[in-house]
């Protein structure tokens, strides 16, 4: 790759990693660090065990920031070949994490909101990365939306941001824009329950 093209590509990669890493849980950061250390890099000195930076005291947040800063320092020093190798492993790991929560058929109501309207619709299938909704409302690809639903009437509503990525006659596919580790745990609980025949009689409530 030519020098100028590679510098532009490097900036894109680092910007993408920055957004993803700052949203990761502590455990996900440690997992990513292990992924980095397990790679057969050209410079084997670029190894760093940052798991000890996560402490339970009042400096925990500061230590987290130190880990992120040191991690980016290491990545910035990687050669083109090593950075591309790391990104390939990162994408495979990210895909595997999403596949841990497969798409499950479902049938429950939820509230969807856009800038100009609020819609109550049915979810037909759901995964940790998105949901397919049954609706005759008009949308556009890339349109931002907000979703709100709860597992039970007694539980707090789960609120997610997303974007329209697929449109069909009578339905629309939504991909979550971002999802926290807490929301992912709730989503995993939902998917596990939907996939469990013993819980099939338990209805889910739309957010209000």
TrEMBL record:
One of its GO terms (molecular function) is cyclic-di-GMP binding. SUPFAM superfamilies: PilZ domain-like. Residues 99-191 form the PilZ domain. It holds the Pfam family PilZ. InterPro entries: PilZ_domain (IPR009875). It comes from the Bacteria. This is PilZ domain-containing protein. It comes from Desulfosarcina ovata subsp. ovata.
């Amino acid at each position: 790759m030519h020098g100028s093209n590679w510098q532009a590509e490097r900036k894109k990669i680092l910007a993408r990693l920055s957004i993803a890493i700052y949203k990761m849980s502590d455990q996900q950061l440690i997992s990513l660090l292990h992924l980095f250390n397990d790679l057969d890099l050209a410079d084997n000195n670029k190894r760093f065990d940052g798991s000890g930076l996560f402490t339970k005291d009042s400096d925990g947040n500061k230590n987290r920031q130190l880990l992120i800063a040191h991690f980016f320092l290491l990545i910035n020093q990687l050669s083109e070949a090593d950075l591309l190798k790391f990104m390939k492993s990162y994408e495979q790991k990210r895909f595997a994490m999403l596949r841990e929560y497969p798409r499950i058929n479902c049938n429950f109501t939820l509230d969807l909101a856009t800038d100009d309207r609020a819609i109550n619709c049915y979810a037909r299938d759901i995964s940790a990365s998105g949901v397919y909704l049954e609706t005759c409302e008009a949308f556009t690809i890339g349109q931002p939306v907000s979703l709100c639903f709860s597992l039970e009437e007694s539980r707090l509503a789960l609120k997610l941001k997303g974007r329209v990525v697929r449109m069909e006659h009578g339905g629309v596919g939504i991909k979550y824009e971002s999802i926290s580790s807490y929301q992912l745990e709730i989503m995993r609980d939902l998917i596990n329950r939907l996939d469990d025949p013993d819980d099939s009689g338990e209805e889910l409530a739309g957010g209000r």
